[in-house]
Amino acid sequence: MATYRIDPDLSFFGQCDNEELGMLLSVLTHDAKDGKKRWTESLTSMPEYQLFYPDHQRYWTSIAAELQAYGANSIATLARKNQGVLYRELLQDVCKKLKVNYNKNSTIETIELNMLLKVLEKSLSEMSQDDLEVLAGNMQLNLSNPTPQLMLIAVQAAVRTSGFAALELATIGAISVINAMGGIATIGTIFAAQRALSIIAGPIGLAFSSAWLVSDIAGPAYRVTVPACIIVAYMRQKYLSQK
């Protein structure tokens, strides 16, 4: 069983609610397509999980430890006395996999936003012109004839100047990866938590997909760490918006 490494980039988990932690937990422990437990997971066998579930706040460090463990191979984890890697290392590995352009010395929030912009960039290329126009309207982007390139530039500019835009981007990223991976057990919670975001309430939010994730992600570890990092990025933006 993994043990938690003190990680300043995951300490905000202690301030997240059960719905948000539940989304991450579901990605870590269950396969989205068939709902079966992942054979690599150890969280559901932990005493704290069995004692406190579904009050995830009571054992958030165990959830963080499970995430860290997915970033390390089994031999390295054993060498660390069952401790995985810090989240920054895991996130950078995911960014390399997704071919994200980022500065390794940037803040963790900046690296996550770069990752989310890459998800958006790839997803925009799959959208029809009608969908682009609806998305531009819902995100209040002043674009009369939106293209994927113009949309990306506009979102980048909005994120630089608005925390709300960053939260919108993170929410879109979370929705798209959840849809692409086939949904998760707590899918309803993200819609309830972000009802104020018109992009989620509208049909484009429900249809938004990142089908490229399914074909681009090779290997069982990335099928966990990529969606997990996108969920964590969403959780962080929501946390920052409430501070």
Question: What do these coordinates show?
Answer:
The protein is mainly alpha-helical and 243 residues long. It has one domain. It has helices at 18-29, 47-52, 60-70, 74-79, 87-97, 108-124, 129-138, 148-161, 163-180, 187-193, 198-201, 203-207, 212-216, 222-242. α1 packs parallel to α3, α5 packs across α14 and α6 packs across α14. The longest helix is centred in the C-terminal third of the chain and has 21 residues, at 222-242. It is globular. The two termini are 33 Å apart. The relative contact order is 0.16.
Helix-strand blueprint:
Elements: H1 18-29, H2 47-52, H3 60-70, H4 74-79, H5 87-97, H6 108-124, H7 129-138, H8 148-161, H9 163-180, H10 187-193, H11 198-201, H12 203-207, H13 212-216, H14 222-242
Quick rundown:
This protein is mainly α and 243 residues long. Helices cover 60% and strands 0% of the residues.
Q: Top keywords for this entry?
A:
mainly alpha, 14 helices, 243 residues, globular
The rough form would be described as: globular
What is the arithmetic mean of pLDDT?
A: 79
Quote the beta fraction.
under 5%
Distance between the termini: 33 Å
Let me know the number of strands: 0
- Classification by helices and strands: mainly alpha
